[in-house]
Amino acid sequence: MKRDTIVILLLLAAGAGWLAYRYRSSGVTTGLGYLAIKSDGIPMSVPMHAARELKDATFSWPRTVGIWAAGFFTLAIFSFLYRDNPIYKIAEAAFVGISAAYWMTVGFWAVLVPNLAGKLFPRLIKFGAVPGLDLDKIVEDLARTSWFGWGIDYESANGDGLTAAWWQLMNLPYWLPMILGAMLLWRLAPKGAWIARWPLAFIIGSTVGFRLVGFLGADFVAQIKASIAPLYVPVYDATSGALDFGRTFYQSMNNVLLLAGSFCALLYFFFSLEHKGLAGKVSRVGIWVLMITFGAGFGYTVMGRIALLVGRFEFLVSDWLNVVAR
Amino acid sequence: MNPALKFLVHLDRRWVFLLMALAVMIPIIWRMEFPEIPTPLVRTVFDRIESLPEGSRILLAFDYDPGSEPELQPMASAWTWHCAKKKHKLYFLALWPVGPQMIQATVDSVLKRDYPQMRYGEDYVNLGYKSGNEGVIKVVVSNLKELYTTDHFGTAINDIPLTRDLVNIRGMDLILNVSAGYPGTKEWIQYASTPYNIPIAGGCTGVQAPLLYPYIPNQMFGLLGAIKGAAEYEKALSDQYPEYARDAAGKRRPEFTKGIERMGPQLIAHCVVLGLIVLGNVILALHRRALRAA
Prior knowledge:
The structure holds 2 protein chains of 2 kinds. By secondary structure, chain A is mainly α. Among the domains of chain A are: 1-30; 245-312, no CATH class. Chain A is built from 9 helices and 3 strands, in the order αβββαααααααα. In chain A, a hairpin with a 4-residue loop joins β1 (33-38) and β2. Chain A is extended and about 75 Å long. The model of chain A has no long low-confidence stretch (mean pLDDT 85). Chain B has 2 domains: 3-30 and 261-293; 40-256, 3-Layer(aba) Sandwich (Rossmann fold). Helices cover 53% and strands 12% of the residues of chain B. Chain B contains 13 helices and 6 strands. The interface between A and B is large, with 54 and 70 residues.
């Protein structure tokens, strides 16, 4: 038998032994988890043997199957840490496929239907998909605000969305995204793929302009403004009014470090000056500033990843295996 | 070369994975917890929500999904509980497709459980998800109803008391954003908070936290950084409102102290990581010395 196989068998045996010990030592309080829904709608994980005797909850087969599927897929993903394998591939493919399908479905029903079809054919959408659409309000708004109606008489509908003609409910500018969207899908057609470049150019151009403004305002100008801070910040005690030396020193040092750190890090990226002598030493400090930043980033990333691992392990031992009571 | 050193130099990384798994699993099973002290950044957010007058309008943007739920749900629950306790009006929305489900899970586990008297549409509303990333923010700061014609459940926005007279989100007293990445806190700062001076606090994953610190305090008044921030907030909440962490019988409510619970495995796992970094460097130094000697 190969060494790998022995190791994995030993680990599985250790896990099974521990589970058996937990189930035996804790009496009837634990067992493989099933999911039930309480009378107030809150899901609860219960041991297998208790699932049939629920008093304030309804046992849920779909959610139970969901928990077991989640348990299987969690272990399948973890199995990659040992070695790439077909079970991992199945879990990976299922995750990607379900995510893409979910995203597309949500995008269709949450955006395309109410925000595009609902603007062009609101009556159809109201009775077919989104009953909450207020047709009267749509007619009123169009009559009041539409400047792009190509001569359509919105006002004669008298604010009655149910009796208005279909074209009196139509918000014409929304044909533009409809046409651009159709052009974007042209990429899938055997001929004329270049047509998709026009809406793509529109998306890229508008996104660039859009994000440029955001970054200029919030990251460039506002960050420069935030970096210009006084180097001496006197802090006075709220009750006595006397100068608080400790907090004054802390606040002032904070600003000094901010200025010095920013300057040194920026100088490291200033290549018009040879990094020798004083400039070399200052840029060296800049490297340290950058390294401390990367270190903070790494530390936080480790914390984030461990938190995700904790979440999965909690699911395995609480919701699924039910060996640690919540 | 020393056989022990040779073994360590060629140590299979899967042993490290196993060690890390044990470092995380054992504190979960033994329920190891450590004391938390709210830091000023967290305290600032707590005090701001605490000091707002009853009925203040708060936008809770839940931009995360089940992938980051272990890290972010504790702070989402804590914020929702705190805002409900102070009787603020809550407007939930999401820029992530699964966000509405996270909102609903929070509503079910926090509001329906502890605040059954709160009424949908009068005290809180779930506006749901819209695609468009920062484009959505750009629209809702000027005309919310241009994009949100209905709420998440298909009810006309004009039929909901909370949103009937809401023109845009500039009138919000506060934005609380729980963010797992893009779009998230950065985009809310860029397109809502900075240009329109809407106060914002972020609760984010560990990966994002260092990137958001530069916005404090001018563009963002507070930040809950990863699970540590959530644990500190839970501590601040349970100090001020003991009923948050314990029920009437004095029994612990673990569903509301997930952040504190998850800091136990964090501490042990971090100690293991630090130990491995030191050990790795020692092994490297010894290996180099052995190579030079050979």
